[in-house]
Each structure stands twice: as structure tokens, then as C-alpha cells.
Design goal:
With 403 residues, the protein is of the alpha+beta class. Helix content is 44%, strand content 11%. The chain contains 14 helices and 14 strands. Helix 1 (4-23) crosses helix 2 (40-57) and helix 1 (4-23) runs parallel beside helix 14.
């Protein structure tokens, strides 16, 4: 249900919810005047968390828990300490944050149990107000079939899903916004791409063609570069054969745990194109065009040693053109923000739509001016858990965009 028709239906719902959320935001009043926000990141995080929760879980999880956005991001800041094996009495703030979120979800579970029989909902219904998306509803039914009946256990499972759908994609969307807003020339090009993906023959106040948006060369390159630069996840595996060999003379016993950092591959200087002496693009710096291949430029593209070059695409008059193309060719085992192999993240397609739609909607709804000369670095306290969010606050001036 995270691919094909189910994916597109869920993405459309997400788009409508985010548009409605930002259009009704009380933090940015109507009019031509500017409003100063102490932190753009918090502004985006809270609005998107509520919109994504409505799209996936229906309106009641937010309606029953007005502080859920603040509760979730407070929990997310303390996730790492929950994995350290520290006793509860030494980690009270993290335990309290987790309990607050599970209490929120239990309230939603009880409300649904009292007001809706999940088995009475027709299978073909893709979205309804109690459980939200079909994905969420079927997931609840699977928990029952697997014997997970305990209220706290179900709340923990649902919290894991809320975390998985927000903790990585929302910070990635924030990085997309920051890098775009910080570079006036890139901002202009991004706006041109977004305008090309807008749907104008619709009664919706703001809508994007999902295919055009997710296939745009520049937007895809920014998306891929953000994840290359800002993701640090730990991929955990167990060998299914004894004496599993790794380069360098390492052998791992069967069923021993292997923990690998994606950061090693995503920042490998032997793999990625870092430009040249005349035009350097260090791997620890954002480069919007790192994943764009220009057929007549052998130095373009993501790889330090490209496997092959695309032929120039013919134009309408039959002549060749040097229009760039987004490419991940040869990057399969190096661009691994979603893991790899059979355990590749099943939500990666929805995550891409989340990140691009969030960025597109905020950039199309608001004019935003950052009030910082230099962008913050990543919060390495989240290292190992996916997208590292910006560290510190990013103040800005914001006002509603006039069509």
C-alpha cells in the first residue's frame, strides 16, 4: 500500500492536508506585512506533523491531542537516549516524553474502539475519518491477527509508525527549504521548476502534478543531495551463513549482529564527484547539481569515475541538446539513505513525495527571508537514527505570497 495506486492516493491526501494546514496558519496573518518567526524549523515541523498525522491517521489523533506536534518533536529529540540501555530513573525526561506520546495514541485507540467497528469498514475504502488511510487501518487489523492486543503494545507499534513517517522526511524537507532559500540563484530555478509542476485547471487553491514534481531534474538532484549529505543511519544485519567475509580479512559468524553506518558510503571520497580545482564541490558541502549529468560534460554527474555517459537527447527539431538529466546510475551501493537489499525502506517512495511536496507547498505559499548569514550544521546528536536535523534555531521573516 506504499506503492502504486495506494501510494498516489496517500500522497494526494497528504498534499491536501499540508496545503490546508499552511493556508490556515495563524502564525502568518493575511496582508502584505512581514512576520518574524524565531525559528523556521519549528514552524515547518509542527505544521507538517499535524498534516501528515491527519493524512495517515485521520483527524481524531490530532483533534483529541492538541499538543501532539510539540509532544512528538520533544520525544524525537530524546529518542537516542532510549536506545542506550539507561535505567528509567536515570533517563526521566526521555521516558516522560515517550509516555506522553503513547498516552496520546492510547486516547485515539480508545476513541476509535468506542465509535467505530474496524471490521465494518469496506475493504475498498481508501480513507475514512477514524483510522485515516487504508494502510493504517489494515495495519491495525494485522496487529490483532498477530496477537498484539495489549493497549500499550499497540500504542508502541503505532508510535513507531508515526516516528518513521516524520522523523526523517520532515528534517529533510527543512534542509531542502534552507538550502534553497539561502541561495538566490537556486531559489529562482526551484521556483521555475515548481511553477512547471503546478496544476492550474483545478478548483484547489494549490496543487502539484505528482509526476512532474517527482521527475523534475533539479528537484530530484536537490532531494538526492540532501539525503546524501544529511542522513546518518545505522543499518543492522545478521549473516545467514557462517564465516561471512568482508573486505580487509574480516569474518563474521552466523547470526552475529553487524551494524553499519550509511554515512561511510554517503561521504566516500573515492566514490562521489567533488568537482575539480577550478570548480570544487567538497562532499561536506551542499551542491544542488551533484546528481545532474550533462551529456557533453564528462565532469558532471554524481560519481567520481562515471560508469557511462548519457547521449544528448534530441530536441524537437532533431538536433541534439545538452539538457541535463537526474541520474543515480552506478550509485546503488553508495547512495543508501534508505538502506539496501531486501530490507530497503518500504516507505521511500512516500518519503520522496513528502519531502518534495512539503518544500513545494511552503515555497509556493510563503515568501521567506532567512535572518542568518550562515546555515546551521546538522545535529549530530541524532547520528545513527536517519536524517540529522539542523542544529539550533533559524529565525526568518515570512509573509503570504500573492498570486
Amino acid at each position: 500500500m506504499l506503492a502504486g495506486q495506494g501510494l498516489e492516493i496517500l500522497a494526494e491526501r497528504y498534499q491536501d492536508e499540508v496545503v490546508g494546514q499552511v493556508r490556515s496558519s495563524s502564525q502568518v496573518p493575511d496582508g502584505d506585512g512581514w512576520t518574524e518567526l524565531p525559528d523556521l524549523i519549528s514552524f515547518v515541523e509542527c505544521h507538517v506533523l499535524e498534516a501528515a498525522t491527519r493524512a495517515l491517521y485521520g483527524p481524531h489523533l490530532v483533534g483529541l491531542n492538541p499538543t501532539i506536534a510539540a509532544d512528538f518533536w520533544n520525544f524525537n529529540r530524546r529518542v537516542k537516549s532510549m536506545f542506550m540501555g539507561v535505567p528509567k530513573w536515570m533517563n526521566p525526561l526521555a521516558v516522560r516524553a515517550r509516555n506522553k506520546m503513547t498516552d496520546n495514541i492510547k486516547r485515539w485507540q480508545r476513541y476509535n474502539a468506542a465509535n467505530c467497528n474496524i471490521d465494518d469498514i469496506p475493504e475498498e475504502v481508501e480513507w475514512e475519518p477514524f483510522y485515516g488511510s487504508k494502510y493504517t487501518r489494515v495495519r491495525q487489523q494485522l496487529l490483532t491477527k498477530r496477537g498484539i492486543m495489549n493497549e500499550s503494545a499497540r500504542a508502541a507499534e503505532n508510535l513507531a509508525f508515526v516516528w518513521a513517517t516524520n522523523a526523517n522526511s520532515v528534517p529533510a524537507a527543512c534542509w531542502f527549504l534552507l538550502e534553497t532559500l539561502h541561495d538566490p540563484s537556486l531559489y529562482k530555478r526551484v521556483q521555475e521548476s515548481l511553477q512547471g509542476a503546478r496544476i492550474t485547471d483545478t478548483d484547489k487553491s494549490l496543487a502539484f502534478d505528482m509526476t512532474k514534481l517527482t521527475n523534475d531534474t533539479l528537484l530530484q538532484s536537490i532531494f538526492a543531495e540532501i539525503l546524501r549529505l544529511r542522513v546518518a543511519a545505522l543499518v543492522v544485519r545478521e549473516p545467514t551463513v557462517d564465516h561471512f567475509s568482508l573486505p580487509g580479512g574480516w569474518y563474521i559468524k552466523q547470526h552475529e549482529t553487524i551494524s553499519m553506518s550509511t554515512r561511510t558510503e554517503l561521504m566516500d571520497p573515492n566514490v562521489w564527484n567533488a568537482g575539480n580545482a577550478a570548480s570544487p564541490h567538497p562532499l561536506d558541502k551542499f551542491w544542488a547539481e551533484r546528481f545532474i549529468v550533462y551529456p557533453d560534460d564528462p565532469r558532471s554527474g554524481p560519481l567520481k569515475e562515471p560508469k557511462r555517459r548519457l547521449k544528448p537527447a534530441p530536441s524537437k527539431d532533431g538536433k541534439s541538446t545538452n539538457e541535463g538529466s537526474f541520474s543515480l546510475d552506478g550509485c546503488t551501493w553508495h547512495w543508501v539513505p534508505f538502506g539496501g537489499g531486501r530490507q530497503l525502506c518500504p516507505g521511500r517512495h512516500f518519503a520522496k513525495r513528502e519531502i518534495l511536496l512539503t518544500s513545494a507547498i511552503f515555497l509556493s505559499t510563503f515568501e521567506i527571508e532567512l535572518m542568518v548569514d550562515k546555515l546551521p550544521g546538522p545535529d549530530k546528536g541524532i547520528y545513527g537514527f536517519g536524517t540529522m536535523p539542523p542544529k539550533g534555531k533559524v529565525p526568518c521573516r515570512i509573509r503570504r505570497r500573492r498570486e
